[in-house]
Amino acid sequence: MSGFFRPEAMAALRRWREALIGLAVVLAGGFVALAALTVIILGVGLAFAAIGLFLLWGGIQRGRFRQAAIGPGVVTLDEGRVTYMGPLDGGVIDIEDMAVLLLDTRSRPPVWVLRQNFEAPVHIPVNATGADRLFDAFLRLPGIQTGRMVRHLNRSRADLVMIWEREDGVGWPQALN
Question: Which residues, listed in sequence order, are joined to residue 165 by a DSSP beta bridge?
């Protein structure tokens, strides 16, 4: 299949795959609803279209979050534990115990700064291999605003932005170290 498409086109399809699936489900549900001869089939079509809208919205968020995996290091996610293995440093952090999530766009490439209590922070480049898995990990953080997170990730302004903080605020003063 890769012989038919340019690598750039395949990368774009992979980046937006969930959104494209959602769009296909919306279109299929809409087609079924429009062609319905009975109320039951109309309801099924509308239900599929609604599910497709949710898939489309989530896919757009994920697509905006993904960066090209050309940065240093590898990220793995296993049962709520994020592991980053980089060429110069690395670290392990449990999402459930995380205190602060920062995005540092001052560095090149930008990095996620994950802080767990008073441990040393883990710095993960946004374009590290497997960094797209962090979206699923960050969804476990209570009260995180994914739209705000993605907006700051795609903004060109160099800044240190607090994306999420645990309610009791443990770890924030040390997160900047």
Answer: 100
**Cα distances (angstroms) measured from residue 103 to each of 11, 31, 68, 137:** 24, 42, 17, 15
Q: Which long-range CB contacts under 8 A does 35-44 form with residues at least 24 apart? A: none
List, for residues 135-163, the tens digit of each pLDDT value. Answer: 889 989 999 998 888 888 888 788 899 99
Q: Could you say which DSSP state residue 85 is in? A: E
Report d(CA 72, CA 111) in Å as an integer: 11
- Looking at residue 96, the DSSP 8-state letter turns out to be G
Residue 37, both tokens:
């001869």
Q: Give the pLDDT confidence of 26-69 residue by residue, as tens digits.
A: 999 999 999 988 999 999 999 999 999 999 998 888 888 888 77
**8 Å CB contact between 126 and 110:** yes
Task: State the Cα–Cα distance between residues 136 and 154, nearest whole angstrom.
Answer: 18
Environment class of 88 (CB within 10 Å of its CB; exposed 0-12, middle 13-18, buried 19+): exposed
pLDDT of 1-22, one tens digit each?
Answer: 556 778 878 878 888 888 999 9
Structure tokens at 119: 């441990």
Bond from prior residue into 142 cis (ω within 30 degrees of 0)? no
pLDDT tens for 63-90 read 888 887 777 899 999 988 999 999 888 8
